[in-house]
Amino acid sequence: MKRALLYALLITFVAVTVKADAGAVREMLLVGNSVSGTVSLIDASSLRNLGSINVIPDLKERLREIHANPWRCFMYGIIKFGQKVKKFEPAGGDRFVDDVFASPDGSRLYVSRANLGDVAAFDLTTPGFPMVWRTVVAGYKADHAAMSPDGSRIVVSATFSGKAQVLETAHGQIVGSFKTGYFPHQNDFSHDGRHIYNSSLGAIFLPAELDWLKGRRLLEVVDAKTLKILKKYSFKKGVRPNVISEDETTFYTQLSYYNGVVKYDLRTGKVVASAKQPLSEFAKAVYSHKNDYPHNSAHHGLALSGDGAQLCDAGTIDNTVSIVSTSDMKVQATIEVGNIPYWATTSHDGRYCYVSLSGDGTVSVIDYNTRAEVTRVSVDRFPQRSRLARLAENTISLLGLSRYQTAWVTPRAVNDEL
Fold it and tell me: Model pTM greater than 0.85?
């Protein structure tokens, strides 16, 4: 009773005191921690982790639903097995956060929840950050997503359904979908919001020797309003993380098994240059065969500097980050970082590249100008996708309170109970 009263007084105090800062906004980096089921908030100015939000508060309920349905339980096991990396697997295939976004006004957080096969929205203006809605996607697994520039829609790859689904963000309703290549992966909106770009990996569970059986690996250009497919580009390898120039003429991408990055002309449909890199000593020692690569990835994580002159290329198996010139695709510098660099995001001001080090539970901050690591920021377990956001000071003030509000349950403890 006393504890409940204390929580109530604390909530009231915070709600009253943060109103004065309602108009203040802070630039942040959202980091989705896939195993922990949390989103860390890193301040872009101080480069400090200000705290985390639990985005699987309903985990017990979701797992009970899954285990109560024999077919769903079977598929959940298949998905967990497929998520495992052959080297440095952290949690038996548990993955609860795949992608994460904040609404343009900073009032909501949207998360594609990987193995749980859904997309969920959370209220960032209320203590405890309660869930607003939850939508189950087709195909049992929710993968990479993208949010439209105006924040009205989210497109998410429904992995095993062979399509991407589009949700409106107000209530989470599915408003459409489009067919993709096999194993749809990354989604991006063009700068003006007119187009959606979707890329596919192919059947990553097949060995490298059967690469020709992995299905169609495509980059698709889709009308964002009608969801009509406007153009398809075919690739011989899975299309990994990629970035598109603002004028939509150039496509920089990593490819399955390829130790580097290529430059692709979207007007001619041809590779015009590449930056193939030698394997590091670490990669030679640990990844002796391509079948050991994490989900076929040699490099996984790519970002473009603010001026468009440089690429930040995460060498996943190499434990390195390379800075590559976009003009001639030559490597300008290679920086040794931590274990499993797995995603890259350029800062609001275009100066830094944030690289998630999944194996270390940290984010490496690389300066594009000096081509050196500035610092590393500790987050939670197995950070993957990171996205930029602008959040109100109110939300930052509520972070400390959320720790008192949330009863954290580990996936292991939940599974032991079922």
Answer: yes
Series of mean pLDDT values for 10-residue runs along the chain (418 residues) = 48 44 83 98 96 97 97 96 94 97 97 98 96 97 97 96 97 98 97 97 96 97 98 98 97 98 98 97 96 97 97 98 98 97 98 97 98 97 98 89 34 33
What b/e readout covers 144-182, taking b as 16+ CB neighbours within 10 angstroms? bbbbbeebebbbbbbbbbbbbbbbebeebebeebbebbb
Spatial neighbors of 38 by CB under 8 A, at least 6 apart, are 52, 53, 54, 55, 97, 380
Nearest to 181 by CA among 166, 165, 198: 198
Tokens for 226, please give them: 């009608």
Burial of 203 from C-beta contacts in 10 A (0-12 / 13-18 / 19+): middle
Contacts of 117 (CB under 8 A, 6+ apart): 79, 136, 137, 139, 140, 141, 142
Q: What CA–CA distance (Å, rounded) separates 136 from 174?
A: 9
CA distance 225 to 193: 9
Alpha-carbon distance of 167 to 357, in angstroms, equals 30
Pick the closest to residue 301 from 339, 255, 334, 344 (CA basis).
344
What pLDDT sits at residue 399?
Answer: 87
CB atoms inside a 10 Å sphere around CB 51: 17
**Whose CA is closest to 85, among 388, 352, 297, 254?**
297
SS3 351: coil
Distances (CA, A) of 311 to 254, 267, 305, 377: 11, 21, 6, 21
Full set of structural domains in the chain with CATH: 2-407 (2.130.10.10)
DSSP 276: E
